[in-house]
Amino acid sequence: MDENECYIYGKLSTKKQTLWNNDNIQILHFWVKTSKDGKLDLIQCPNINCDVGQSNGLECIYTCKRKRSMLIWGKIRKGKSGKYRIHQSRKNVEYEMLNFLNVDEHKHSMIEVKEQIWINTGHYWDKKQLLDDILNDGEKKSELLNILNNNINTNKSHYKFYTDGSLMERNKVKKMGIGWLLKNEEENNTDLEFKAANVGWPSSTKAEILAIVTALIVTTPHSTIEIYTDSANAISQFENIKKNYL
After folding, report:
1. How far apart, in whole angstroms, are the C-alpha atoms of residue 35 and residue 37?
2. What are phi and psi of 35, to 5 degrees?
3. Where are the beta strands (DSSP E) in 128-198?
4. Cβ–Cβ < 8 Å for 218, 147
5. Domains of the chain
6. How high does pLDDT run on average in the chain?
7. pLDDT, tens digit, for every residue of 177-189?
8. Residues 34, 49, 191, CA angle at the centre, nearest 5°?
């Protein structure tokens, strides 16, 4: 609970070995809502326009007083899109917190508490899970997620990409490279550039398609997207999908 008597939920980020040696602890911020059966439903804060915690570049971290914090014990079930269900009653957890801090329950009910908004983060988390499947490099994944966050925060709605993929062989080892340029049409120059390597079964077409996929990952919903590629195979595959499935 913060100094304004608001409940803040999260996953412990401070190392357990140092937990009792510090007055302050850090938690990975989670948004909360009550499920239909009264249990706790949590989802990791997407670090987008959040005024609760502080961004460390990729995650939202909240620093709180250890003496105003309480560990929640219970069975945890992980769901889709970064959601967690804790099999504890939210009402009971928050009641115990009030008792722990000796806060008057009636007084607390009179406080105007800012309602936590259950943000629709499916778009963000679906793309994060997709990145986990196609990139091994944690730094490159963070780079793409930071670009996505920035595009969401700035309400970017039009994208013009130039994508490329390559397949090379060095010392009898085949390596794939992917990359794209995002053009700034207003200033007629390059706004962003992304490059990465990919592993797995080698294919020049795969590299071209992954370049397009990583470009699409950083775009926002309901936006206009232009993609320029020299891969005839990628264009053919897209036309086939559009004809048969869209």
Report:
1. 5
2. -75, 175
3. 158-170, 173-184, 189-198
4. yes
5. 9-110 (no CATH), 122-245 (3.30.420)
6. 77
7. 889 999 886 666 7
8. 140
